[in-house]
């Protein structure tokens, strides 16, 4: 310990809100560090616990410990004030081993009538493409392993295989951690996966994004103050202090830079301090400086006691100086695996020595490409690598002998504060000693809802546009159908108003399609490693959608009900409003379900518009229920528009004392409607004589009940229509949950 004290390079002091020093961050040097010196690993969980101890006991002796590698004149350091006992720094190394990983896919080509050889029964030819061919290797705690190769070499496939993102039935070979098979449930808890694309909410700031991740991944037992301290520590570790209050941004909103966005993507997946971190091309699309800073951050993560495995396309010279292990792939085969320092020796023995002033990685990749384009391909290089590894294996195994079991290693990590996602100290059974989720479902619902509301508040134009569409439609209907009278034409106009109004409520819900599609891959990333339950997401999204639906329904109902002159007074308005609300709820749920099934926005809009048109066709407006053919009657009962349409019709025409056709009005919808009034009265007298009933000009011929019978609306009461509409909404939310459960596995087949 004494050797570590006092060896501090120039550093920038970072303090907490109450001015207690957390740790020091050196920003003066970004040069590669030496790997041949011993390290002292301190996890961020230790740091936070020790900070909390220091706050509670100001008399505690402050001691400075290194978080990164030892400080030399040209190395950067991460130093922390802490009162951690020396025993907490003891390391129990993890070793991730993979052997003979093989993965292939079947490519089914289109039918070719001229080719008869090698066809399947349906006439199409099937070829098997090998993406991974007996890949083996080993990654150790504190090290960074990089997988390199040209596009299509199998880099991302290997990362997916190690990260348990390929179905077990399709992947051959074994993956072990400290010699024990790594079960899927355990791996989700102790590892994290950073996708190639930065999947973030654009309207959240960097600090808010990391804080929401902390609320998802860190257990409820950890206080709010500790979670905030952890986020602040992580912001400093990622070098994001200057961008902490800046929104992430997207094409329409200016935000953080590409390198900062990539570091935020890494941060949200390491908030719980995982043992293994997988990354798919973390430097893709970044300039050399930003790429170097990202890899530098990953080096710090590895040195804090994690295994870092990434795919990378073509690292620069400086990045190569940070990597501990390399695996070069060519069309699914390993052509080199080992330390970067052994590359010159390897290619020299292969009789292709690397020139002194040339980048070793670029030379290796160029040579591999040349061999791939040759007649024999990389077969000779693959065979040479096998022989070379066989010669290196004895000394390699002696230097890397690890006798620590997985149970002991995880127990030691938990005791040091690592894996703070709900792990317990009882690791007698590794699979059951970890909670599947860090928080109960109601906490998850609150956090998801809080995040969604914050996003909505920062994009008020979305609600404004939807409100504008509803209000414009309401105003048009109100001015088009103003003060309808109780005549036969008034009846037809009412039917048209109700049919259009009810269908409009469903069509305006189509805007919900891009809402989930924009979050789809964020949702898949977060649920892949158990950040929260799918049920929590569905329930939370359902609840937070209701206030907006209430507001939209009230606006539409108030705009149209009295202007059109609908019946029922205040009670009639209440039912009309509830029916509009139920329609919005059912339509929103239906569209949300479709967004969980259809992954393309344009396709989703097409499907929604088509199905809603069918619902309107079979609602009973264009053709009454009694006249629908029997082979289509089932669609009539599946129509979402049917139930609110029938409900509002009953609300309007249920009064038996209200008359809509009197005496001479029976001729209005016939050719006799154009004859003089006197002639109509004469016809009524003649009809009275024939029928034996006195029919005068004021005699009520058709009441509201008669109109309902003519429309075939007699089997379901208006309140039952309302409850059925509400039930449809819940039904589609349940279907949405199952769509997410089945469709978001995020694994290759």
TrEMBL record:
Membrane-crossing segments per the record: 463-484, 496-517, 538-562, 574-594, 601-623, 722-743
InterPro entries, per the entry: AAA+_ATPase, ABC2_TM, ABC_transporter-like_ATP-bd, ABC_transporter-like_CS, ABCG_dom, ABCG_transporters, P-loop_NTPase
Localization in the cell: Membrane
Protein's UniProt keywords contain Glycoprotein: no
Record's keyword terms, sorted: ATP-binding, Membrane, Nucleotide-binding, Transmembrane, Transmembrane helix, Transport
Record flagged with keyword Transmembrane helix: yes
Primary subcellular site in the record, as a coarse category: membrane
Residue span, ABC transporter domain: 96-356
Record SMART domains: AAA
Membrane topology category: Multi-pass membrane protein
Protein name: ABC transporter G family member 2-like
Gene: LOC104785776
